[in-house]
């Protein structure tokens, strides 16, 4: 079956512009997660969704970052007024439900470069 | 801030060698530990989800053990093959505050290179 998909796969943008990153989770997965990996850093949790709600936004690095999920499916991560430190690989993952017992299935990521 | 450490940072072995690496995590408020393999140009792929002290998991030539009391997990690869070359990530989940929502705190990873 189809895995988690993300688009675009690569995005180059100028500092100060807004960007939108999209994630399509595995069908039937109610939980969706966003992570990022900056150069030389580990995977960093950003936000998770249970259905359409985001109970934990503590990982979002600043108020320039926002995310939404509609219909319990597609999610969009938006970064406003991008900065060079936003350059990273942004990964989306989904799981059957919010539970530590469920493995997470990752998408291929979006590589964001802010020039 | 949760501290999840992996060692070594990188490892080079010859085909056929057996190898192991370590993930250290807080021993209090343990809920679960995940292991993932991340090959270059691919997505991270789950290897194991471990929740019980003393748990041992095995998938082919790869196995893992868990010690929650002392806060570590070992990943073993028997008879390494070039296709095992990847970054191996562990991720910790805490039940501090009573929630167990799958928020993973990742280590920095161990980069394994298996030379033919």
Question: Can you walk through the features of this model?
Answer:
The complex is a heterodimer of chains A (about 120) and B (about 120). With about 120 residues, chain A is an all-beta fold. Chain A has no helices and 11 strands. In chain A, strands 2, 4, 5, 6, 9, 10 and 11 form a 7-stranded mixed sheet that branches. The radius of gyration of chain A is 13 Å and the shape is globular. The N and C termini of chain A lie far apart (about 35 Å). With about 120 residues, chain B is mainly beta. Chain B is built from no helices and 11 strands. In chain B, strands 2, 4, 5, 9, 10 and 11 form a 6-stranded mixed sheet that branches. Chain B has a 5-stranded antiparallel sheet with strand order 1-3-8-7-6, with no helix packed on it. In chain B, strand 6 and strand 7 (about 60-65) form a beta hairpin. Chain B is globular. The N and C termini of chain B lie far apart (about 40 Å). The chains are: A mainly beta (about 120), B mainly beta (about 120). The interface of A and B includes residues 42 and 45 of A.
Question: What's this model, at a glance?
Answer:
The complex is a heterodimer of chains A (115) and B (116). Chain A has no helices and eleven strands.
| Largest interface pair | A-B, 30 and 24 residues
Number of helices of chain A: 0
Structural class of chain B, by secondary structure, is mainly beta
The number of helical elements of chain B comes to 0
What is the helix/strand order of chain B?
EEEEEEEEEEE
Please write out the topology:
The complex is a heterodimer of chains A (115) and B (116).
Chain A: E1 5-7, E2 10-13, E3 19-24, E4 31-37, E5 43-50, E6 53-56, E7 65-69, E8 75-79, E9 88-95, E10 105-106, E11 110-114
Parallel strand pairs in A: 2-11
Antiparallel strand pairs in A: 1-3, 3-8, 4-5, 4-9, 5-6, 7-8, 9-10, 9-11
Chain B: E1 5-7, E2 10-14, E3 19-24, E4 30-38, E5 45-50, E6 56-59, E7 62-67, E8 72-77, E9 86-94, E10 105-106, E11 110-115
Parallel strand pairs in B: 2-11
Antiparallel strand pairs in B: 1-3, 3-8, 4-5, 4-9, 6-7, 7-8, 9-10, 9-11
């Amino acid at each position: 079956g189809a895995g988690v998909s993300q688009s675009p796969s690569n995005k180059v943008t100028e500092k100060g512009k807004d960007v939108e990153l999209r994630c399509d989770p595995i069908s039937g997965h109610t939980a969706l997660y966003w992570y990022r990996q900056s150069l030389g850093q580990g995977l960093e949790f950003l936000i998770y969704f249970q259905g359409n709600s985001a109970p934990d936004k503590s990982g979002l690095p600043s108020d320039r970052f926002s995310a939404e999920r509609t219909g319990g499916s597609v999610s969009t991560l938006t970064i406003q007024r991008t900065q060079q430190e936003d350059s990273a690989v942004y990964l989306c993952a989904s799981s059957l439900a919010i539970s530590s017992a469920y493995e997470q299935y990752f998408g291929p990521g979006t590589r964001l470069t802010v020039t | 801030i949760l501290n999840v450490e992996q060692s070594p940072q990188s490892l080079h072995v010859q085909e056929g060698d057996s190898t192991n690496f370590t993930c250290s995590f807080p021993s209090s408020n343990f809920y679960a530990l995940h292991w993932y393999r991340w090959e270059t140009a691919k997505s991270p792929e789950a290897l194991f989800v471990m929740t019980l002290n003393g748990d041992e998991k095995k998938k082919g030539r790869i196995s893992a053990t868990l010690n929650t009391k002392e806060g570590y997990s070992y990943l073993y690869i028997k008879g390494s093959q070039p296709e095992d070359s990847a970054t191996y990530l562990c991720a910790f989940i805490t039940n501090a505050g009573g929630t167990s929502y799958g928020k993973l705190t990742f280590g920095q990873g161990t980069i394994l290179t298996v030379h033919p």
